[in-house]
């Protein structure tokens, strides 16, 4: 049965000379894999340019409950980008976040609130016109944790406390797990949790500070998501924003 479905592109892989396999996070069926015929012609087939990292698209696909791969018949852009694929910093952030989401969103179940968050965030990054997005990926990942049930408990935060990464909470006592942040870095986690896209430019960081935050967040997810790998695009992102 053919259905029209909206989705965010997480990953695209060449299957053969005429087809690609694409992973989307969709509004109706959650994380799903599709197969599509591609063409370099504007007149025939689906153009692979539509499936760049974090692209927002609408597909018409043959959805069959027992299939692992659903066949795409037609695809079109849901939100044509103005800057995301063309800006070197934004495109690097998009590549990293697409890889991150591809590894983190393993469940197939749809989540309306999560899908709305992804659409809002991706559009915000595309429409941002200045360098105030340097902390975007940090804020995005911290807020993503809420949808995955990993948002830290901040109720017990006090100055000079530790952050227990395994139990996702702040504590005045040295955690026994060994996976923790000392008070100075725990305070930075609390700071990140206060940021949003509109205010994050007010929190100045050096590249070294930003990279340390990214490393900590990545390690935090790896602690809580089974088989979460080392991301290939992580080192590329760490070279941005001098």
Please describe the structure with a list of short key phrases separated by commas or semicolons.
8 strands; 242 residues; 6 helices; 22% strand; alpha+beta
What is this structure's SSE topology?
Blueprint: E1 2-14, E2 19-26, E3 30-37, E4 56-62, E5 69-77, H1 88-104, H2 112-127, H3 136-147, E6 162-164, E7 169-171, E8 180-181, H4 183-194, H5 207-224, H6 234-237
Parallel strand pairs: 3-5
Antiparallel strand pairs: 1-2, 1-4, 2-3, 4-5, 6-7, 6-8
Please provide a written account of the structure.
- The chain is an alpha+beta fold and 242 residues long.
- It is 33% helix and 22% strand.
- The protein is built from 6 helices and 8 strands.
- A 5-stranded mixed β-barrel has the order 1-2-3-5-4. A 3-stranded antiparallel sheet has the order 7-6-8.
- The protein starts with a strand and ends in a 5-residue tail after the last helix.
- The mean pLDDT is 90.
Task: Please summarize what this structure is.
The protein has 242 residues and is α+β, with helices and mostly antiparallel strands.
Strand content: 15-25%
Outline, from the CA principal axes?
A: globular
The helix-strand sequence is EEEEEHHHEEEHHH
Number of helices: 6
Secondary-structure-derived class: alpha+beta
Unreliable spans: none
Gyration radius, in Å: 19 Å
Instruction: Give the termini distance in whole angstroms.
Output: 50 Å
| Average pLDDT for all residues | 90
Q: How is the largest sheet built, in terms of strand order? A: 1-2-3-5-4
Helix fraction, binned, reads: 25-40%
Give the beta-strand count: 8
**Major sheet summary line:** 5 strands, mixed, barrel
């Amino acid at each position: 049965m053919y259905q029209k479905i909206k989705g965010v592109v997480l990953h695209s892989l060449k299957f053969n000379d005429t087809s690609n396999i694409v992973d989307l996070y969709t509004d109706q069926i959650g994380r799903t894999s599709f197969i599509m015929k591609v063409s370099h012609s504007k007149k025939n087939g689906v153009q692979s340019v539509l499936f760049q990292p974090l692209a927002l698209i609408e597909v018409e696909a043959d959805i069959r409950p027992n299939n692992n791969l659903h066949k795409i018949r037609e695809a079109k852009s849901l939100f044509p980008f103005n800057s995301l694929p063309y800006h070197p910093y934004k495109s690097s952030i998009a590549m990293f976040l697409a890889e991150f989401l591809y590894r983190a969103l393993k469940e197939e179940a749809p989540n309306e609130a999560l899908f709305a968050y992804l659409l809002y965030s991706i559009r915000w990054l595309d429409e941002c016109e200045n360098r105030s997005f340097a902390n975007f990926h940090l804020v995005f990942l911290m807020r993503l944790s809420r949808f995955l049930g990993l948002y830290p408990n901040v109720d017990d935060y006090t100055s000079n406390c530790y952050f227990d990464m395994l139990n996702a909470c702040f504590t005045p006592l040295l955690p026994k797990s060994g996976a923790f942040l000392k008070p100075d870095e725990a305070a930075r986690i609390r700071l990140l949790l206060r940021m949003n896209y509109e205010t994050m430019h007010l929190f100045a960081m050096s590249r070294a500070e930003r990279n340390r935050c990214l490393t900590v967040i990545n390690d935090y997810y790896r602690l809580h998501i089974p088989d979460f790998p080392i991301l290939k695009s992580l080192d590329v992102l760490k070279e941005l924003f001098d």
